[in-house]
Specification:
Pfam family, one: RNB
Oligomer: single chain
Number of strands: 33
Catalytic activity: Exonucleolytic cleavage in the 3'- to 5'-direction to yield nucleoside 5'-phosphates
Distance between the termini: 22 Å
Shape: globular
Subcellular location: Cytoplasm
Helix content: 25-40%
Largest sheet: 7 strands, mixed
Enzyme class: hydrolase
Function: 3'-5' exoribonuclease that releases 5'-nucleoside monophosphates and is involved in maturation of structured RNAs.
Number of helices: 17
Length: 746
C-alpha cells in the first residue's frame, strides 16, 4: 500500500501528464497559430500563481523535448516535424493505448484522449510526435482506416432518460450510449448484442442500438451465446448454404474407377469418444518384400465443396471449426461434416491419401499421394486403443501395436532432429443436462493419441515436401505452409533470466534452444512450478501461422510442413488438397498473392477461435468454482500485478486473484522488476511460482473472474487479520472500477 507521500507524488505525476496532454491538444488543434503562456492559461482555465508556474515549467519541458517551439516573440506553437504511420490499436487501459506498427518498429504510445474514437483492433493512421532518443514514441490517431468490429456484447443499464451498455470485451473501455428508442425489448441488466451506429470521437463515446437480447446475465445459454456474439461466431448456417449441402449427391459409384481402391485393406479410425466427424483413417497391410504399406486417408472434402459455391464461401469465411465447452460451431454443415465426409465404419468413403512403404523402424522407402476410396472396418476410441496398447486383446491388436512402435520411433527421430516437447495441459468438463459443470479434469494424452499424431505429422510433412520439390518450368510453387518461426532471441534471454530465480537454466544460442528447452521440460516434470513455467516457455515461442512462404516449423524441426489432415474443420487443409491435386495433374502454380491473403485470413480466424474457446473454458471454470465445495485449495502464483496476485488452483486448474487490498496483515508494495510483492514491515514476499493456500471469496460469472482469499503464505504461515483499528476498508480497490488488467506475464 502506498504511503501518503507516495500517493501525493503519484497524484502530482498524473496532474503533470494531464497538463502536458492539454497543452499539446490545444497546440495540435491550432497548428498554424502561436499562443502566449497567458492565452494558453486562459484556454486551459488555469488560474493562480501555482498553476501559472506549472504551465511555464511544462512549456519549458516540451521545448526541451522538441514537441513545441518558442518563437522569437515569446509565443508557443506546435512542432510540426512529425511523421504518419499506419498500425493497429492495442487499447491497454482506460488511460492509454499502443499503436502496433510492426516491422520491428517501436509501438507508439497514445493517450486515450488522442485516440479520436479509435477502438481496440482498429487499423489507423497515427501522427508520431518528435521524441527524445531512447524515449518511447508518442502520437495521436489522425485517421481510422478500418474498424475491427461494429458489434459488441455487454450488460445494458437502463435509466429513465437513456441507457448504456457496458461491454464484456476487456479491451473496450468505452461504454456504449443507447437512446431509449434503440433498446428494443431489452430489460435492465440483461445481456445484449449492440451494433455501433455512431463511432464518437475524443469528446463523445460510441453510440449504438440493441440488435439482439441474449438473456439474463449469468445463465448458461445467455453466456455461451454472449461468447459467440462477442467473437463474431455464427449461430447458424445461412439457408442457401444448408440447402446447397442437402442437395449434394452421394456419387461414390461414379468415382470408383477414377481412384485407387483401398476397400479390401484393413482400415480403421481412432477418435475421441464423443466425435462425430471422423476426418482421418489409417490402413495397414504387409507387402511381399516384408515392408509395410501404411495409408493416411483424409476425408475428400474438396470433392464436395467446390469453388464458387455458397458452401465454399461460408467455409472460407469461418475458416475453422470452433470448439466451445458445450458445443461445436462447425466450419461445414452437418450434412457434410457428420455424413458425406465423415469416415464412418462399414461405409465406402471418398478420401485423399498419403501412402507410405515403411519398415518397422519407420524408414520410408516409397510414398504416393492421390485420391482414393476406403471402407473403414472399425471405429476405435482413444480409450479402446489405449487398453489394447497396454496389453488387452481386441480387434486389429497386432496392427495397432505395430503402428504404435513405428510412431514411437518416428517421434524419437523427430526429437533427435531438434523437435520440441511442449505439451500444454487442457481441461475438460463434465456437464449436466443444463450445462452446469459437475467436474473439471485435465485431458491426459497417452500413446493412442500420440500414435495418431505421429502419422498425421508424417502426412503433413511429406505433402509439404513433395509440393516444395515439385517444379514446372522455372516458376515457384504456390503452397499453404504451416510455419513456426524461430523465437525472438531477446524473449528467450528474458525467459532464461527469469527461470534462474527457480534454479533452472537454458541455452540461448541459436541452434541450442530446442534441446535446452526439452531438457527444461524434463527437469520440470512433477514439480509444483511445472505447468506455470512450461506455459511461459510456450509464450516465449513464436505463434504458428499459415503462409505461402516455406519458412519451416521450428517446434517440429521440419523444413517444410503443411496442414493436410483435417479438411472438415480447417480451411487451409482444403487449400492444401486443391494445390496438391493441381500439381499431381501437372498444373501451373496459381497466384501466390491470392493464397497469401487466404492464409492471413485463416490465421486470424484461428486466433478468434482460440480466444473464444478460452473464454468458454474460463466461464465454466468460474461457474464450477461458484458451486464448488467451500474449502482450502493449494495453488501456484501465476502472475503478479500492482493490484494483486493471480493464483492457479492445482486441483481444478482454475485461476483467480488475491487482491492486495485483501492482504490485511501488512502494506504490500509491487516490485515489477522481480515479479513479486513485498510487505513493508514484515518483508514477506509473494512471487511468481510460489505455492500458497487460498479459498474462494467470490465469483463473477459476468466478468468471468474469481476473487480469492489467501489462507497461507508461501512459508506456510497463515494470513493474520489486523486489529479493528488498523483494518483497511477492503472495498476500496486500488484500481477502482478499472476494467481489464496489466499483463500477467513478462
Amino acid at each position: 500500500m502506498r504511503t501518503k507521500k507516495e500517493t501525493k507524488k503519484s497524484a502530482g505525476k498524473d496532474r503533470a501528464i494531464n497538463l502536458k496532454e492539454q497543452i499539446l491538444s490545444v497546440l495540435r488543434q491550432n497548428r498554424s497559430q502561436a499562443f502566449t503562456a497567458k492565452q494558453l492559461a486562459k484556454k486551459l482555465q488555469l488560474k493562480g500563481d501555482r498553476y501559472e508556474k506549472s504551465l511555464r515549467d511544462m512549456l519549458d519541458f516540451l521545448i526541451e523535448t522538441d514537441e513545441i517551439s518558442m518563437l522569437s516573440n515569446g509565443t508557443y506553437r506546435y512542432n510540426t516535424k512529425t511523421q504518419t504511420k499506419t498500425g493497429v490499436v492495442d487499447w491497454v487501459s482506460p488511460h492509454y493505448a499502443f499503436i502496433v506498427v510492426g516491422n520491428d518498429e517501436k509501438d507508439i504510445w497514445v493517450h486515450s484522449s488522442n485516440l479520436n474514437g479509435a477502438l481496440d483492433g482498429d487499423t489507423v493512421n497515427v501522427v508520431v510526435y518528435m521524441h527524445r532518443a531512447g524515449s518511447k514514441p508518442e502520437g495521436e490517431v489522425s485517421e481510422i482506416l478500418q474498424r475491427k468490429k461494429d458489434e459488441y456484447v455487454g450488460i445494458i443499464e437502463i435509466t429513465k432518460r437513456h441507457a448504456f451498455v457496458i461491454p464484456d470485451n476487456r479491451k473496450m473501455y468505452a461504454d456504449i450510449y443507447i437512446p431509449l428508442d434503440a433498446i428494443g425489448n431489452a430489460k435492465d441488466r440483461e445481456k445484449v448484442l449492440v451494433k455501433i451506429t455512431h463511432w464518437g470521437d475524443a469528446e463523445q463515446g460510441p453510440q449504438g442500438k440493441v440488435t439482439e437480447v441474449l438473456g439474463k446475465a449469468g445463465e448458461h445459454e445467455t453466456e455461451m451465446h454472449s461468447i459467440m456474439a462477442e467473437f463474431g461466431l455464427p449461430f447458424r448456417f445461412p439457408e442457401e448454404v444448408e440447402a446447397e449441402a442437402k442437395a449434394i449427391r452421394n456419387d461414390i459409384e461414379s468415382e470408383v474407377a477414377k481412384r485407387r481402391d483401398f476397400r479390401d485393406i484393413v482400415t480403421f479410425t481412432i477418435d475421441p469418444e464423443d466425435a462425430k466427424d471422423f476426418d482421418d483413417a489409417l490402413s495397414i497391410r504387409k507387402l511381399e518384400n516384408g515392408h509395410w504399406e501404411i495409408g493416411v486417408h483424409i476425408a475428400d472434402v474438396t470433392h464436395y465443396v467446390t469453388p464458387g459455391t455458397s458452401l465454399e464461401r461460408e467455409a472460407f469465411a469461418r475458416a475453422t471449426s470452433v470448439y466451445l465447452v458445450d458445443r461445436t460451431i462447425p466450419m461445414l454443415p452437418e450434412r457434410l461434416s457428420n455424413d458425406l465426409c465423415s469416415l464412418r465404419p462399414n461405409e465406402d468413403k471418398l478420401t485423399f491419401s498419403s501412402v507410405f512403404e515403411m519398415d518397422e523402424t519407420g524408414k520410408i522407402y516409397n510414398e504416393w499421394f492421390g485420391r482414393t476410396i476406403i471402407h473403414s472396418n472399425r471405429r476405435f476410441t482413444y480409450e479402446e486403443v489405449q487398453r489394447i496398447l497396454e496389453g488387452e486383446s481386441g480387434d486389429f491388436a497386432e496392427d495397432l501395436r505395430l503402428l504404435n512402435d513405428i510412431a514411437k520411433q518416428m517421434k524419437e527421430d523427430r526429437f533427435k532432429n531438434g523437435a520440441m516437447s511442449f505439451e500444454t495441459i487442457e481441461v475438460k468438463f463434465k456437464l449436466d443436462e443444463k450445462g452446469v459443470p459437475l467436474a473439471v479434469y485435465p485431458k491426459i494424452r497417452k500413446d493412442a493419441h500420440k500414435l495418431i499424431e505421429e502419422f498425421m505429422l508424417l502426412a503433413n510433412k511429406k505433402v509439404a515436401e513433395w509440393v516444395y520439390k515439385y517444379k514446372k518450368g522455372k516458376e515457384k510453387n504456390t503452397m499453404v505452409y504451416r510455419i513456426h518461426e524461430s523465437p525472438d532471441n531477446e524473449k528467450v534471454k528474458l525467459f532464461a533470466s527469469f527461470i534462474r530465480r527457480f534454479g533452472y537454466k537454458i541455452q540461448t544460442e541459436s541452434g541450442k534452444i530446442a534441446d535446452s528447452m526439452n531438457q527444461l521440460i524434463e527437469d520440470l516434470e512433477g514439480k509444483p512450478e511445472q505447468f506455470t513455467l512450461q506455459n511461459l516457455a510456450i509464450r516465449t515461442m513464436a505463434k504458428a501461422r499459415y503462409s505461402t512462404e516455406p519458412l519451416g516449423h521450428f517446434g517440429l524441426a521440419f523444413a517444410h510442413y503443411t496442414h493436410f489432415t483435417s479438411p472438415i474443420r480447417r480451411y487451409p487443409d482444403m487449400m492444401a488438397h486443391r494445390l496438391l491435386q493441381l500439381y499431381l495433374n501437372a498444373g501451373k502454380a496459381p497466384d501466390r498473392n491470392v493464397y497469401e491473403d487466404q492464409c492471413k485470413h485463416s490465421s486470424e480466424r484461428e486466433k478468434v477461435a482460440s480466444d473464444a474457446e478460452r473464454a468458454s473454458i474460463k466461464y465454466k471454470q468460474v461457474e464450477f468454482m461458484k458451486n464448488a465445495e467451500q474449502k482450502d485449495y493449494e495453488g501456484l502464483v501465476t502472475g503478479v500485478t500492482e493490484f494483486g496476485v493471480f493464483v492457479e488452483m492445482i486441483e481444478t486448474r482454475c485461476e483467480g486473484m488475491v487482491r492486495i487490498s485483501d492482504l490485511t496483515d501488512d502494506y504490500y508494495e509491487h516490485d515489477p522488476e522481480n515479479y513479486r510483492i513485498i510487505g513493508r514491515k514484515t518483508k514477506r514476499i509473494i512471487t511468481f511460482g510460489d505455492k500458497v493456500t487460498v479459498r474462494v471469496k467470490a465469483t463473477n460469472l459476468e466478468r468471468r473472474s474469481i476473487d480469492l482469499t489467501l489462507v497461507n503464505f508461501p512459508d506456510g504461515k497463515p494470513l493474520k487479520e489486523p486489529s479493528k483499528d488498523k483494518r483497511r476498508d477492503s472495498s476500496k480497490s486500488r484500481g477502482g472500477k478499472k476494467k481489464g488488467s496489466s499483463s500477467k506475464y513478462f
